[in-house]
Amino acid sequence: MTTRRLLRRATGVGAAALMLALPLTGCTPMASQEQLQMLEDARKRAESAEADLNACKQERARLESELADKKATLAKLQNDRDAVQKALNQR
Fold it and tell me: Which of 16, 51, 75, 83 has the most crowded Cβ, counting Cβ within 10 A?
């Protein structure tokens, strides 16, 4: 999943959790079992979205590191190529 997509999902889950929490602030001293279950489900979805987001962040960091390594290799190979071409031109 893309980071943007995960952020949207996490935001949506957070908004849903907030909307579910609003009815819990009513006049009753205790939340109903249904409300507690809905809140627990929203919490689990939010935790899942956060775990997905963290996994994507780790994957992105790994890919960025791999890209940096490949760019460094490319630069070295280009320098080697330039040195060989310079040596050939001096013949």
Answer: 16
**In sequence order, what are the residues at sequence separation of 6 or more whose Cβ sits closer than 8 angstroms to the Cβ of residue 19?**
none
- Those residues with Cβ within 8 angstroms of residue 43's Cβ, 6 or more apart along the chain or in another chain: 17
The structure's pTM equals 0.56
Are 35 and 22 within 8 A, CB to CB?
no
Q: Ranked by mean pLDDT, which of 1-5, 22-26, 63-67 comes out on top?
A: 63-67
d(CA 61, CA 65): 6
**CA neighbours within 13 Å on the CB side: how many for 63?**
7
